[in-house]
Amino acid sequence: MAILFRSTPAAVARWRPLFDQLMPEHEIRYWPEIGDRAAIEYALVWQPEPGLLASLPNLKLIVGLGAGVDHVLGDPLLPTGVPIVRLVDPYMTDAMSEYVVLSVLRLHRQDLDYLAQQRARVWAEREQKNATERPVGILGFGTLGQDAGRKLKALGFDVAGWSRGTKAIPGFACYAGSTGLDAMLARSEILVCLLPLTPETTGILSAAAFARLPRGAGLVNVGRGGHLVEADLIPALDAGQLSGAVLDVVGAEPLPGDHPFWRHPRIILTPHIAAETHPPTAAAIIREAIRRREAGLPAENQVDPARGY
Ligand code: NDP
Ligand code: OXD
Questions:
Q1: Over the stretch 259-288, which tens digit does the pLDDT of each residue have?
Q2: SS3 assignment, position 85
Protein backbone atom coordinates (compact mmCIF):
# COMPACT_ATOMS: atom_id res chain seq x y z
CA MET A 1 0.00 0.00 0.00
CA ALA A 2 1.28 3.49 -0.83
CA ILE A 3 0.14 7.01 -0.01
CA LEU A 4 0.34 9.89 -2.46
CA PHE A 5 1.13 13.36 -1.12
CA ARG A 6 0.29 16.07 -3.62
CA SER A 7 0.95 19.67 -2.59
CA THR A 8 3.56 22.35 -3.18
CA PRO A 9 7.32 21.69 -2.92
CA ALA A 10 7.40 23.92 0.19
CA ALA A 11 4.70 21.80 1.80
CA VAL A 12 6.59 18.60 0.98
CA ALA A 13 9.63 19.97 2.83
CA ARG A 14 7.49 20.64 5.92
CA TRP A 15 5.46 17.41 5.88
CA ARG A 16 8.06 14.82 4.92
CA PRO A 17 9.93 14.75 8.29
CA LEU A 18 6.61 14.50 10.13
CA PHE A 19 5.45 11.55 8.05
CA ASP A 20 8.87 9.90 8.49
CA GLN A 21 8.45 10.24 12.23
CA LEU A 22 4.72 9.54 12.63
CA MET A 23 4.04 7.00 9.89
CA PRO A 24 7.30 5.10 9.28
CA GLU A 25 5.27 2.00 8.39
CA HIS A 26 3.74 3.71 5.34
CA GLU A 27 5.31 4.35 1.96
CA ILE A 28 4.62 7.99 1.08
CA ARG A 29 5.17 9.09 -2.49
CA TYR A 30 5.66 12.77 -3.11
CA TRP A 31 4.14 14.11 -6.31
CA PRO A 32 5.28 14.15 -9.11
CA GLU A 33 7.33 11.01 -8.29
CA ILE A 34 4.35 8.76 -7.82
CA GLY A 35 5.56 5.47 -9.31
CA ASP A 36 3.10 2.64 -9.92
CA ARG A 37 -0.33 4.25 -9.65
CA ALA A 38 -2.06 0.95 -8.88
CA ALA A 39 -0.27 0.72 -5.53
CA ILE A 40 -1.65 4.04 -4.27
CA GLU A 41 -4.58 3.61 -1.87
CA TYR A 42 -4.60 6.98 -0.11
CA ALA A 43 -4.24 10.44 -1.61
CA LEU A 44 -3.43 13.48 0.54
CA VAL A 45 -4.03 16.46 -1.68
CA TRP A 46 -4.11 20.23 -1.98
CA GLN A 47 -5.28 21.53 -5.36
CA PRO A 48 -4.71 18.27 -7.27
CA GLU A 49 -4.69 18.67 -11.02
CA PRO A 50 -7.90 17.49 -12.71
CA GLY A 51 -7.71 13.80 -13.52
CA LEU A 52 -4.91 12.95 -11.05
CA LEU A 53 -7.25 11.21 -8.58
CA ALA A 54 -9.10 9.42 -11.40
CA SER A 55 -5.78 7.98 -12.56
CA LEU A 56 -5.37 6.04 -9.28
CA PRO A 57 -7.42 2.85 -9.77
CA ASN A 58 -7.22 1.48 -6.21
CA LEU A 59 -7.87 4.62 -4.19
CA LYS A 60 -9.57 3.96 -0.83
CA LEU A 61 -9.61 7.48 0.65
CA ILE A 62 -8.98 11.07 -0.45
CA VAL A 63 -7.83 13.45 2.27
CA GLY A 64 -8.08 17.16 1.46
CA LEU A 65 -5.19 19.00 3.10
CA GLY A 66 -7.42 21.84 4.25
CA ALA A 67 -10.79 22.53 5.83
CA GLY A 68 -12.33 23.52 2.51
CA VAL A 69 -12.56 20.91 -0.26
CA ASP A 70 -13.59 23.03 -3.23
CA HIS A 71 -10.09 22.36 -4.61
CA VAL A 72 -10.93 18.62 -4.72
CA LEU A 73 -14.60 18.74 -5.66
CA GLY A 74 -13.86 21.09 -8.55
CA ASP A 75 -12.16 18.24 -10.44
CA PRO A 76 -14.56 17.28 -13.25
CA LEU A 77 -12.96 13.82 -13.35
CA LEU A 78 -13.20 13.21 -9.60
CA PRO A 79 -13.77 9.47 -9.05
CA THR A 80 -17.18 8.69 -7.58
CA GLY A 81 -17.44 6.27 -4.68
CA VAL A 82 -14.10 7.10 -3.06
CA PRO A 83 -14.73 8.74 0.33
CA ILE A 84 -13.30 12.24 0.77
CA VAL A 85 -12.45 13.67 4.16
CA ARG A 86 -11.42 17.19 5.05
CA LEU A 87 -9.18 18.50 7.81
CA VAL A 88 -10.88 19.49 11.01
CA ASP A 89 -8.02 20.49 13.28
CA PRO A 90 -8.54 22.41 16.53
CA TYR A 91 -5.22 24.17 15.92
CA MET A 92 -6.56 25.62 12.66
CA THR A 93 -9.87 26.45 14.28
CA ASP A 94 -8.08 28.51 16.93
CA ALA A 95 -6.04 30.26 14.24
CA MET A 96 -9.17 31.15 12.28
CA SER A 97 -10.90 32.50 15.35
CA GLU A 98 -7.88 34.67 16.15
CA TYR A 99 -8.05 36.13 12.66
CA VAL A 100 -11.81 36.69 12.76
CA VAL A 101 -11.70 38.28 16.22
CA LEU A 102 -8.83 40.55 15.14
CA SER A 103 -10.64 41.58 11.96
CA VAL A 104 -13.97 42.19 13.64
CA LEU A 105 -12.25 44.26 16.33
CA ARG A 106 -10.39 46.30 13.71
CA LEU A 107 -13.63 47.13 11.94
CA HIS A 108 -15.54 47.65 15.19
CA ARG A 109 -12.85 49.99 16.60
CA GLN A 110 -12.63 51.98 13.33
CA ASP A 111 -9.00 51.11 12.69
CA LEU A 112 -9.16 52.12 9.04
CA ASP A 113 -10.33 55.61 9.99
CA TYR A 114 -7.72 56.04 12.71
CA LEU A 115 -4.96 54.86 10.36
CA ALA A 116 -6.13 57.42 7.80
CA GLN A 117 -6.17 60.08 10.50
CA GLN A 118 -2.66 59.12 11.58
CA ARG A 119 -1.40 59.46 8.00
CA ALA A 120 -3.06 62.88 7.83
CA ARG A 121 -1.83 63.85 11.36
CA VAL A 122 -5.38 64.40 12.54
CA TRP A 123 -5.95 64.04 16.29
CA ALA A 124 -9.72 63.58 16.53
CA GLU A 125 -12.07 61.33 18.45
CA ARG A 126 -14.72 59.30 16.72
CA GLU A 127 -17.91 58.10 18.31
CA GLN A 128 -17.44 54.49 19.46
CA LYS A 129 -19.92 51.78 20.42
CA ASN A 130 -19.17 48.89 22.76
CA ALA A 131 -19.13 45.33 21.43
CA THR A 132 -22.50 44.61 23.06
CA GLU A 133 -24.01 47.18 20.74
CA ARG A 134 -22.43 45.72 17.59
CA PRO A 135 -24.35 42.93 15.83
CA VAL A 136 -22.06 40.54 13.97
CA GLY A 137 -23.37 38.02 11.46
CA ILE A 138 -21.45 34.90 10.48
CA LEU A 139 -22.30 33.30 7.14
CA GLY A 140 -21.41 29.63 7.59
CA PHE A 141 -22.05 28.55 11.16
CA GLY A 142 -20.12 25.28 11.10
CA THR A 143 -16.89 24.24 12.81
CA LEU A 144 -15.04 27.50 12.20
CA GLY A 145 -18.03 29.85 12.27
CA GLN A 146 -19.27 28.59 15.63
CA ASP A 147 -15.85 28.76 17.26
CA ALA A 148 -15.29 32.32 16.04
CA GLY A 149 -18.84 33.12 17.15
CA ARG A 150 -18.19 31.86 20.68
CA LYS A 151 -15.00 33.91 20.95
CA LEU A 152 -16.68 37.05 19.62
CA LYS A 153 -19.53 36.51 22.05
CA ALA A 154 -17.05 36.23 24.91
CA LEU A 155 -15.97 39.78 24.01
CA GLY A 156 -19.59 40.89 24.17
CA PHE A 157 -20.53 40.99 20.48
CA ASP A 158 -24.13 40.21 19.59
CA VAL A 159 -23.52 37.26 17.25
CA ALA A 160 -25.82 35.55 14.77
CA GLY A 161 -25.04 32.63 12.49
CA TRP A 162 -26.42 31.56 9.12
CA SER A 163 -26.32 27.95 8.00
CA ARG A 164 -27.92 25.65 5.47
CA GLY A 165 -29.89 23.61 7.98
CA THR A 166 -31.88 25.12 10.85
CA LYS A 167 -29.95 25.27 14.12
CA ALA A 168 -30.74 26.20 17.70
CA ILE A 169 -27.58 27.17 19.57
CA PRO A 170 -28.11 28.79 22.96
CA GLY A 171 -26.85 32.36 23.07
CA PHE A 172 -26.87 32.88 19.29
CA ALA A 173 -29.52 34.06 16.86
CA CYS A 174 -29.54 31.32 14.21
CA TYR A 175 -30.79 31.83 10.67
CA ALA A 176 -31.08 29.47 7.72
CA GLY A 177 -32.15 29.53 4.09
CA SER A 178 -32.90 32.52 1.88
CA THR A 179 -35.45 34.21 4.15
CA GLY A 180 -33.05 33.72 7.03
CA LEU A 181 -30.31 35.33 4.96
CA ASP A 182 -32.31 38.53 4.49
CA ALA A 183 -33.02 38.78 8.21
CA MET A 184 -29.41 38.05 9.07
CA LEU A 185 -28.03 40.64 6.64
CA ALA A 186 -30.45 43.29 7.89
CA ARG A 187 -28.99 43.03 11.41
CA SER A 188 -25.28 42.57 10.67
CA GLU A 189 -23.11 45.64 11.16
CA ILE A 190 -20.14 43.36 10.61
CA LEU A 191 -20.53 40.40 8.27
CA VAL A 192 -18.08 37.49 8.34
CA CYS A 193 -18.06 34.92 5.54
CA LEU A 194 -16.97 31.46 6.67
CA LEU A 195 -18.88 29.46 4.09
CA PRO A 196 -17.56 26.65 1.93
CA LEU A 197 -17.47 27.52 -1.76
CA THR A 198 -20.31 25.66 -3.48
CA PRO A 199 -22.57 26.48 -6.42
CA GLU A 200 -25.11 27.93 -3.93
CA THR A 201 -22.62 30.14 -2.11
CA THR A 202 -20.58 31.40 -5.07
CA GLY A 203 -21.03 35.16 -5.44
CA ILE A 204 -23.08 35.49 -2.25
CA LEU A 205 -21.15 38.64 -1.27
CA SER A 206 -22.64 40.83 -3.97
CA ALA A 207 -24.07 44.32 -4.39
CA ALA A 208 -27.51 42.87 -3.61
CA ALA A 209 -26.26 41.47 -0.29
CA PHE A 210 -24.37 44.66 0.59
CA ALA A 211 -27.53 46.70 -0.03
CA ARG A 212 -29.34 44.62 2.60
CA LEU A 213 -26.73 45.32 5.28
CA PRO A 214 -27.03 48.35 7.55
CA ARG A 215 -25.30 51.34 5.96
CA GLY A 216 -21.61 51.47 6.80
CA ALA A 217 -21.31 47.74 7.60
CA GLY A 218 -17.93 46.01 7.63
CA LEU A 219 -17.08 42.83 5.74
CA VAL A 220 -14.64 40.03 6.57
CA ASN A 221 -14.17 37.36 3.91
CA VAL A 222 -12.23 34.35 5.10
CA GLY A 223 -14.21 31.76 3.12
CA ARG A 224 -13.08 31.76 -0.49
CA GLY A 225 -12.48 34.47 -3.07
CA GLY A 226 -15.34 33.07 -5.14
CA HIS A 227 -17.84 34.16 -2.48
CA LEU A 228 -17.21 37.79 -3.37
CA VAL A 229 -18.33 39.45 -6.57
CA GLU A 230 -15.14 41.49 -6.78
CA ALA A 231 -16.56 44.13 -9.11
CA ASP A 232 -19.21 44.97 -6.48
CA LEU A 233 -16.86 45.65 -3.57
CA ILE A 234 -15.16 48.94 -4.42
CA PRO A 235 -18.40 50.65 -5.53
CA ALA A 236 -20.00 49.63 -2.20
CA LEU A 237 -16.99 50.97 -0.26
CA ASP A 238 -16.79 54.19 -2.24
CA ALA A 239 -20.53 54.80 -1.78
CA GLY A 240 -20.22 54.26 1.98
CA GLN A 241 -22.61 51.31 1.98
CA LEU A 242 -19.63 49.34 3.32
CA SER A 243 -17.13 51.06 5.62
CA GLY A 244 -14.34 48.54 5.25
CA ALA A 245 -13.43 45.05 4.11
CA VAL A 246 -10.90 42.55 5.39
CA LEU A 247 -10.08 39.99 2.72
CA ASP A 248 -7.96 36.93 3.36
CA VAL A 249 -9.07 35.25 0.15
CA VAL A 250 -9.53 36.58 -3.38
CA GLY A 251 -10.57 35.18 -6.74
CA ALA A 252 -7.07 34.89 -8.20
CA GLU A 253 -4.39 33.95 -5.66
CA PRO A 254 -1.82 35.43 -5.60
CA LEU A 255 -3.67 38.67 -6.28
CA PRO A 256 -2.25 40.27 -9.47
CA GLY A 257 -0.04 43.30 -8.77
CA ASP A 258 -2.31 45.69 -10.67
CA HIS A 259 -5.50 44.66 -8.88
CA PRO A 260 -7.29 47.68 -7.34
CA PHE A 261 -7.78 45.87 -4.02
CA TRP A 262 -4.07 46.35 -3.25
CA ARG A 263 -4.33 50.09 -2.93
CA HIS A 264 -7.88 50.75 -1.81
CA PRO A 265 -7.72 52.59 1.53
CA ARG A 266 -10.70 50.74 2.97
CA ILE A 267 -9.50 47.23 2.16
CA ILE A 268 -7.20 45.19 4.40
CA LEU A 269 -5.64 42.28 2.52
CA THR A 270 -3.83 39.19 3.75
CA PRO A 271 -2.49 36.35 1.55
CA HIS A 272 -4.82 33.47 2.56
CA ILE A 273 -3.21 32.96 5.95
CA ALA A 274 -6.19 33.17 8.31
CA ALA A 275 -5.87 29.48 9.23
CA GLU A 276 -3.09 27.69 7.47
CA THR A 277 -2.89 23.93 7.62
CA HIS A 278 -0.56 23.08 10.49
CA PRO A 279 1.42 19.95 9.58
CA PRO A 280 2.42 18.85 13.13
CA THR A 281 -1.22 18.52 14.24
CA ALA A 282 -2.67 17.68 10.83
CA ALA A 283 -0.27 14.76 10.27
CA ALA A 284 -1.60 13.03 13.39
CA ILE A 285 -5.19 13.60 12.21
CA ILE A 286 -4.34 12.10 8.82
CA ARG A 287 -2.66 9.08 10.41
CA GLU A 288 -5.87 8.48 12.38
CA ALA A 289 -8.02 8.83 9.24
CA ILE A 290 -5.92 6.17 7.52
CA ARG A 291 -6.05 3.92 10.59
CA ARG A 292 -9.85 4.16 10.66
CA ARG A 293 -10.13 3.32 6.98
CA GLU A 294 -7.79 0.34 7.35
CA ALA A 295 -9.83 -0.83 10.36
CA GLY A 296 -13.08 -0.53 8.42
CA LEU A 297 -14.41 2.22 10.70
CA PRO A 298 -16.58 5.05 9.32
CA ALA A 299 -14.62 8.10 8.19
CA GLU A 300 -14.77 11.25 10.31
CA ASN A 301 -15.35 14.64 8.68
CA GLN A 302 -16.44 13.03 5.45
CA VAL A 303 -17.46 15.40 2.69
CA ASP A 304 -20.72 15.04 0.80
CA PRO A 305 -19.87 15.78 -2.86
CA ALA A 306 -23.57 16.30 -3.69
CA ARG A 307 -23.82 19.01 -1.03
CA GLY A 308 -20.45 20.47 -2.03
CA TYR A 309 -18.82 20.51 1.41
P1 NDP B 1 -18.15 23.44 7.97
O2 NDP B 1 -18.56 22.46 6.93
O3 NDP B 1 -17.95 22.97 9.36
O4 NDP B 1 -19.22 24.63 8.02
C5 NDP B 1 -19.78 25.16 6.86
C6 NDP B 1 -20.99 25.99 7.26
O7 NDP B 1 -21.51 26.61 6.09
C8 NDP B 1 -22.11 25.13 7.85
O9 NDP B 1 -22.74 25.84 8.91
C10 NDP B 1 -23.07 24.99 6.67
O11 NDP B 1 -24.43 24.79 7.04
C12 NDP B 1 -22.90 26.34 6.01
N13 NDP B 1 -23.35 26.32 4.63
C14 NDP B 1 -22.90 25.58 3.60
N15 NDP B 1 -23.62 25.82 2.48
C16 NDP B 1 -24.56 26.72 2.83
C17 NDP B 1 -25.62 27.34 2.13
N18 NDP B 1 -25.86 27.09 0.83
N19 NDP B 1 -26.41 28.20 2.81
C20 NDP B 1 -26.19 28.45 4.12
N21 NDP B 1 -25.20 27.89 4.84
C22 NDP B 1 -24.39 27.04 4.20
O23 NDP B 1 -16.83 24.15 7.41
P24 NDP B 1 -15.70 24.90 8.24
O25 NDP B 1 -16.34 25.80 9.22
O26 NDP B 1 -14.69 23.93 8.73
O27 NDP B 1 -14.97 25.74 7.06
C28 NDP B 1 -15.67 26.71 6.34
C29 NDP B 1 -14.84 27.26 5.19
O30 NDP B 1 -13.82 28.12 5.67
C31 NDP B 1 -14.06 26.24 4.35
O32 NDP B 1 -14.90 25.57 3.46
C33 NDP B 1 -13.06 27.12 3.65
O34 NDP B 1 -13.61 27.64 2.45
C35 NDP B 1 -12.85 28.28 4.63
N36 NDP B 1 -11.51 28.24 5.22
C37 NDP B 1 -10.65 29.28 4.98
C38 NDP B 1 -9.40 29.29 5.53
C39 NDP B 1 -8.50 30.45 5.36
O40 NDP B 1 -7.33 30.39 5.77
N41 NDP B 1 -8.96 31.57 4.81
C42 NDP B 1 -8.90 28.18 6.34
C43 NDP B 1 -9.88 27.14 6.55
C44 NDP B 1 -11.13 27.17 5.99
P45 NDP B 1 -24.88 23.48 7.87
O46 NDP B 1 -24.32 23.68 9.26
O47 NDP B 1 -26.36 23.54 7.84
O48 NDP B 1 -24.28 22.30 7.16
C1 OXD C 1 -8.42 25.59 4.04
C2 OXD C 1 -7.66 26.79 3.70
O3 OXD C 1 -9.47 25.34 3.45
O4 OXD C 1 -6.51 26.93 4.17
O5 OXD C 1 -7.98 24.87 4.96
O6 OXD C 1 -8.17 27.64 2.99
A1: 999 999 999 999 999 999 999 999 999 999
A2: strand
In the annotation, is 108 catalytic? Answer: no
Amino acid 268: pLDDT: 98
Structural domains of the chain in order of their starting residue, each with its CATH number: 2-89+277-294 (3.40.50.720), 90-269 (3.40.50.720)
Mean of pLDDT values over 37-42: 98
Task: Collect all residues with Cβ–Cβ distance below 8 Å to 192 and sequence separation of at least 6.
Answer: 100, 103, 104, 136, 137, 138, 139, 145, 148, 220, 222
C-beta contacts of 202-208 below 8 A and 24+ residues apart: 202/226, 202/227, 203/227, 203/228, 203/229, 204/139, 205/229, 205/232, 205/233, 206/232, 207/232, 207/235, 207/236
Cβ < 6 A, ligand 1 pocket? 66-68, 96, 140-145, 162-165, 194-198, 200-201, 222-224, 248-249, 272, 274-275, 309
What is the rounded distance in angstroms from the CA atom of residue 220 to the CA atom of residue 107? 9
Rounded Cα distance, 262 and 148, in Å: 26
Identify the nearest ligand to the CA of 197 by its number. Answer: 1
Q: What percent of the chain has pLDDT over 70?
A: 100
Ligand 2 lined by 67 (C-beta under 6 Å): yes
* Active-site residue, 278 included: no
The response to whether residue 205 sits with its C-beta less than 6 Å from ligand 2 reads no
pLDDT of residue 256: 98
- Closest ligand, as measured to the CA of 195: 1
Cα(195) to ligand 1 centroid in Å equals 4
pLDDT (tens digit per residue) in 123-136: 999 999 999 999 99
Ligand 1 centroid distance, CA of 164 (Å): 10
